[in-house]
Design goal:
A 5-stranded parallel β-sheet has the order 2-1-3-4-5, with helices on both faces. The longest helix is centred in the N-terminal third of the chain and has 11 residues. The protein has a single domain, classed as Rossmann fold (3-Layer(aba) Sandwich). It is α/β, with parallel strands linked by helices. Helix 4 links the parallel strand 3 and strand 4. Helices cover about 30% and strands about 20% of the residues. Helix 3 packs parallel to helix 4. The chain contains 5 helices and 5 strands. Pathway: Metabolic intermediate biosynthesis; chorismate biosynthesis; chorismate from D-erythrose 4-phosphate and phosphoenolpyruvate: step 3/7. Keywords: Amino-acid biosynthesis, Aromatic amino acid biosynthesis, Lyase. Catalyzes a trans-dehydration via an enolate intermediate.
Length: about 150
């Protein structure tokens, strides 16, 4: 199974940025742990601060991967382009957010992406990504194993 994690703007600063909200672990460290724990999955990651690059990556993997875990970050609340890219592809997408966006500013309560996804996971820190990954592994017909 091939799963792509796509991260949007400022997520390259995890471990340095607003640790009270996002924690002190870098995404690369977390990703290495995730790869080790889920060896049966071919996990890839991509991060960009540029909206068009995120759209390009969604389109690139949207017909060949079995799942996309997408944290579009601030673009979640502003990008019709990313929402349209998710709607246009065949690969299922799970939207994730590290923080509970509903406990934050009101503009973060609206997602343009969510209506085009198979689901949304918010507020569980970096574990949100693992929960999204598990959702792909536990689908009907999947040969994946759920490790809690």
């Amino acid at each position: 199974m091939k799963i792509m994690i796509i991260n949007g703007p400022n997520l390259n600063l995890l471990g340095k940025r607003e640790n009270d909200i996002y924690g002190d672990e870098t995404f690369n460290d977390f990703f290495t742990t995730l790869q080790f724990k889920y060896k049966e999955v071919e996990l890839s990651q991509f991060q960009s601060n540029i909206e068009g690059e995120l759209i390009d990556k969604i389109q690139e993997v949207g017909y060949t991967y079995q799942g996309i875990i997408l944290n579009a970050a601030a673009y979640t609340h502003t990008s019709v382009g990313i929402a349209d890219a998710v709607k246009a592809i065949q690969t299922p997408v799970v939207e994730v957010h590290i923080s509970n966006t509903y406990k934050r500013e009101e503009f973060r309560h609206k997602s343009f992406v969510a209506p085009n996804t198979k689901g949304v996971i918010v507020g569980f820190g970096l574990q949100s990504y693992e929960l999204a990954l598990q959702s792909f592994l536990t689908e009907e017909g999947s040969d994946g194993i759920l490790n809690l």
